[in-house]
Amino acid sequence: MTIRQSSARSHGTPPLRRRIRRCRATVRFWRHRGRAAATEWNRRMLAEAADDTRRGTRWGRSAAVLLPAALGVGALGASIATGALAASFNGPTPRSP
Length: 97
Description:
Layout: H1 3-11, H2 15-50, H3 59-82
């Protein structure tokens, strides 16, 4: 008889059932904690929305950064394609024995 079998018999329940019970208790704990956290977050968001502070994504600022970067990448690609800029994309060379 192995150690696992002897401990299962001494407790009266198979190890799988004990694990399932433990998992259910853990899920109940985290479910409750998740609800409490979501409720608290929602309360904070509603309180912050009451004042007139502007929040959110600033798309104009994002576009101001993204547009020049995209134009630069496009210019590099076009110059490589036309041959104005020399570029070589060779992979690693295989090692000889």
